[in-house]
Amino acid sequence: MIDIGYFSLCVALAFSGWAMVAPLVGVRRGNESLIRSGERAFLAVCALITVAVIALWNALLSHDFQVQYVAETSNRAMPLIYVIAALWGGQEGSLLFWNWILTIYGAALVLINAKRYRRLMPFAVPVVAATVFFFTLIHLFEANPFVRLPFTPADGRGLNPLLQHPVMAIHPPTLYLGMVGMAVPFAIAVAALWSGQLDQTWLHAVRRWMLVPWTFLGAGLLLGGKWAYVELGWGGYWAWDPVENASFMPWLSATAFLHSAMIQERRGMLKMWNLILVILTYALCIFGTFITRSGIIDSVHAFARSNIGPFFSVFLILILVFSISLLWHRYRELRAENRLESLASRETAFLLNNWVLLGMLFAVFWGTIFPLLSETFTAEKISVTAPFFNQVNIPIGLVLIFLTGAGPLFAWRRTSAESLKRNFTWPGVAALVTAALLVAAGIADLYAVMSLALCAFVLASLFTEFHRGTQARQRTTQVGYLRALYALLAKSRRRYGGYLVHLAMILLFVGFTGKAFTVEREVELGVGESVQIDDYTVRYEALAQSEDANKTAVAAALSLFLDDRFVTTLMPARHEYKSFEQGTTEVSIFSRLREDFYIILVGWNELQSAKFLVYINPLVNAVWVGGIVFVLGSLWAMWPTARDRRLAQVDRRAMQAVGSGATTLRP
Amino acid sequence: MKSKFTFGAVLITAGLVYLFVSSVEQSAATHVSLDTLLEDSGTYAGRRLQLGGCTVVPGSIQWDQFRHRPEFLVTDGDRRLRVRYRGNSVLPDTFKDQAQVVMEGHYDRGSDHFDAQVVFAKCPSKYEGQDYQGHIDAMQSQG
């Protein structure tokens, strides 16, 4: 079966080469069937890579330990879900997984949009195919998942227990669906530049294809944070580690694009800028993968130096050189159709939003590559540690929250003074009242007060948007409030889905603000002793040892009381995995709306006294709830309405009529 | 209009640059290898350092009563240094004999030891960079 896998990769290489070349030759010679042939070749590539993936999965599931990759990433004792997840658990498999997702996205582009964006396809397909070609080259020559050992081990090594957690099983696929998916908007943008089709077509195409990976990327980031929080036991969920930053940066540039795209749509401005953002997003994804796999920057996630670093850096340079030359070539055709008319306009707010998001991106980028830069230009290699990122990004974040609330309060082009006064009054009052209440309650942390006050500002702004929209609908359609509200949400999905995503951002920021109030305590307790922390009392009851096939475990049982009422039993533990000679720390968490009570078992002595680390994390659950709202809001924004579907059908029919030569489309 | 906008952009950029520079100063940690540090300890004493390229000397980990803050020895193959962990967090689960570690902290010249605030131990990923032969040997010895 494995040789089928390898063979598929070889054939896929050939077909992807054809998919790169045929459409380009076809469009030059006006040969439509060559173009179609290239598209079909790409679909074949997708099928072939799928065969390779199935072959690898088959090897994993049948415990074929003669395959080196299987022996490294799985063993007999591993639960089924992690054997499946082992597909992306190691270098070679994860590259194949990346390639597979890429072909699926590309195939989706061909199947869904081939007719609608006919003139872009002959250029977009080769771009995606070239990427697949690159990855397949890597599979065949540098990181082959199908390498066999000269003998068959009785059992594999298996996946490290730290990675055997449900969230960890879905975090990489989610992240990949995000990072890899950015190749499609990139392909469309390049296609627009290459073909000279620089009207609004490419913008619509890119926006739809950007939303999906953007959502996955955001979700993947939060899943990673959630895993770190519940599994790693340091009380936090984000460490500004280079690999984390690597996946955060493309999300920032994609977010900037989603906003400035609206300016281009309305006012025909920022065309060049938007193309740059799309290219930048994809380049950052490749850069991210490069950092992660090459070992060039130290990181807790860092994998040992491997040989594929140079492949990715060359690829990245090629992408950048190619894109920049296309931009240069088309410079004159990307002139803005309108100009900025007033500072008090939504355009300005969106421009500021872009500046700020890119400022944050630059800060993160700067901090991440600082060691490389300092090493190149000075004698010393210097890292900037987590405090840098927090110190820089908190003020930037505050400006971002403000803009999130202020943006919708401005009108396009120019906002009159009365509108400004009317729109800003209630949100402004909400912010001031919140700030006053917080200060009165004794909260002295300036950033925290500003953050929560601005969150109130945004909430009030969102509320006014929803309310006014519903009222307007009520006036025209004479229905009840709730029905009007629902109709509003259902009709303008992009807009109100977007507002829901803003709401999610506010929840996230509220959660982040909670970090300013974290309580951290070290406690040493003998059996039966208790300690009081804030409103909680925790009593150490007993230490218990247990053992199973995989591991030995020591767990401490503690009774948790809140205001003297028993709430739950906490069981922080330490597991020692037999095959890995390594332990994991099992955190125990009691969650409520306000905060988490988070406890770690540090160690114990012969007398069974034990030491614990306790964190009280206020507002942390707002982060996870925000994550869910984010995904829901984004789904809502993307979901086509009945009208969208009808329009798409009309489009398809028109395209078919043109394609068959029956009519010509007027430009 | 254009000039108002440019002015704003310049202001924002200036603000960001100021923010960057001051934050870098406050959080910078200089990378050193064990070699460089011990050779030149005068230069590096008192500065926040990131010490990498070391592994934990087998058998050298001395835990406190509750396995929280150990003292241990690290080596780069050549020289050795005593390290005391002073941070609050529980050490990563990857911290053990022969683990590759990266530590942030300060070097105490007087007592010739390193006070580590943060200890990173090599992440348990599977992206190992061993060559094929190394893998074979590893598999066979386990097998």
Helices and strands in order:
The complex is a heterodimer of chains A (about 675) and B (about 140).
Chain A: H1 2-29, H2 32-61, H3 68-73, H4 80-85, H5 91-113, H6 121-141, H7 166-179, H8 183-195, H9 200-232, H10 242-267, H11 271-294, H12 309-329, H13 346-377, E1 381-384, H14 386-406, H15 417-440, H16 446-477, H17 481-491, H18 493-513, E2 519-525, E3 530-533, E4 536-547, E5 551-562, E6 565-570, E7 573-577, E8 582-586, E9 588-591, E10 595-604, E11 610-618, H19 621-638, H20 642-659
Antiparallel strand pairs in A: 2-11, 3-4, 4-5, 5-6, 5-7, 7-8, 9-10, 10-11
Helix pairs in contact in A: 1-2, 1-6, 2-5, 2-6, 5-6, 6-8, 7-9, 8-9, 8-11, 9-10, 9-19, 10-11, 10-13, 11-12, 13-14, 14-16, 15-16, 16-17, 16-18, 17-18, 18-19
Chain B: H1 2-27, E1 28-33, H2 34-39, H3 41-44, E2 49-56, E3 71-75, E4 80-85, E5 100-108, E6 113-121, H4 132-142
Give your account of this protein's structure.
- The complex is a heterodimer of chains A (667) and B (143).
- Chain A has 667 residues and is of the alpha+beta class.
- Chain A has helices at 2-29, 32-61, 68-73, 80-85, 91-113, 121-141, 166-179, 183-195, 200-232, 242-267, 271-294, 309-329, 346-377, 386-406, 417-440, 446-477, 481-491, 493-513, 621-638, 642-659, and strands at 381-384, 519-525, 530-533, 536-547, 551-562, 565-570, 573-577, 582-586, 588-591, 595-604, 610-618.
- Among the domains of chain A are: 1-164, no CATH class; 525-621, no CATH class.
- In chain A, strands 3, 4, 5, 6, 7 and 8 form a six-stranded antiparallel β-sheet that branches. In chain A, strands 2-11-10-9 form a four-stranded antiparallel β-sheet, with no helix packed on it.
- Chain A is globular, with a radius of gyration of 27 Å.
- The two termini of chain A are 52 Å apart.
- Chain B is α/β, with parallel strands linked by helices and 143 residues long.
- Chain B has one domain (29-142): OB fold (Dihydrolipoamide Acetyltransferase, E2P) (Beta Barrel).
- Helices cover 33% and strands 30% of the residues of chain B.
- Chain B has helices at residues 2-27, 34-39, 41-44, 132-142; strands spanning 28-33, 49-56, 71-75, 80-85, 100-108, 113-121.
- In chain B, strands 2-3-4-6-5 form a five-stranded mixed β-barrel.
- In chain B, a hairpin with a 4-residue loop joins strand 3 (71-75) and strand 4 (80-85).
- Chain B is elongated, with a radius of gyration of 21 Å.
- The chains are: A alpha+beta (667), B alpha/beta (143).
- Chains A and B meet through helix 3, helix 13, strand 1, helix 14 and strand 2 of A and helix 1, strand 1 and helix 4 of B.
- Strand 1 of chain A pairs antiparallel with strand 1 (28-33) of chain B.
